[in-house]
Design goal:
It is found in: Membrane. By secondary structure, the chain is of the alpha+beta class. It has a single domain, classed as Butyryl-CoA Dehydrogenase, subunit A, domain 3 (Up-down Bundle). It has 5 helices and 9 strands. Strands 8-5-4-3-2-1-9 form a 7-stranded antiparallel sheet. Strands 6-7 form a two-stranded antiparallel sheet.
Length: 267
Amino acid sequence: MANTLRIHIIITFIIACACVALIVASFSTQLWIEGQIKLTSSSLSWTNDINYGLFSGHISGTRGFSVKGELTMSCDMSANVCIMSCQTTEELRAQELHNVTNNGMWTGCPFSRAEIDTCDGKCTEFIDAGMWVSSVLFLSLGLLGSVLAAVFAVVNSTVSPIEPILSVPGLYIWNGASALCTLVVLILWGTLYLNTLQDNIAYSETMTGLYSSEASLSVSYWLLLVALFLEIGNICVLVLRKYQLAHEPPPPTVKMDENTDGIIFLY
C-alpha cells in the first residue's frame, strides 16, 4: 500500500526535511526578538540595537563610545525568572540575576560605563522561566517529530512496514505531533512577547528603568510559522493520497470460463 502513489510519500519527505531545516535555524539563530534600547535618565539620545534568541543575543551601538557585546540567557528556576544578561561568566550572571530579583540592584555591563542602578526594590519585568523552558522543550519535540516524519517517509517510499506506527498512518502522527508542538511554541512565545517583551525586552540594562526598550518578534520566530504551514501541508498531502487511493478504479479481474475440456488450472 505504501508503494502506491509513492510520489506523495516522497513529497512529504522533502517537506519534512524543509521543516527540520527551519526548526534548526530557528533554534540556533539570535533573531527571536529584535529591538532597541534608549537611555531614559539623561538628555543625551543614545539608542542601541539588540537582538536575541532562545539562548544568546547581541547588542551594538554607541553611547558616546562604541558598544558591542554578546548576551546570554540567564535563568533562576527557583524564582521562575530569566533575563538576557550582558555578563561574561556563569558566576557573574548568577550574581546579577540574584541582585535584580532580590534587591533590584544592577552593577553594569563589562562593555558599558554605566554606574550602579536599582529598581527601588525588586525588578519585575522578567522572562517567565517556565515559558522559556516549555518553548525549548516543545521546539525540541517538534524537531524530533519532523526528523521522524522524514525518516519514515524514506522507509515507506521503499518498503511497506506492517506496524501502523511505522507505516503511512505513522506519518500522520509524526507530522501532526510536530505541527502541534510548533504551534505551542508560537503561542507560548507570542504570549510572552505580548505580556512582557514588547514593552520591556528583559535585558539586564533595561530591568532598572535606566533604559527603555521597544521590541518586535523577528525572523527566527516567524520561521516557525512557515514550518507550521509546511507540517500541515504534509498532512494534506497524505490526506490527498488517501483520497486518491480510495477513488482509484479497482484492478481488472480475469473471469475464467467454465472448464469444459477437462483442463485443470493450477495457481
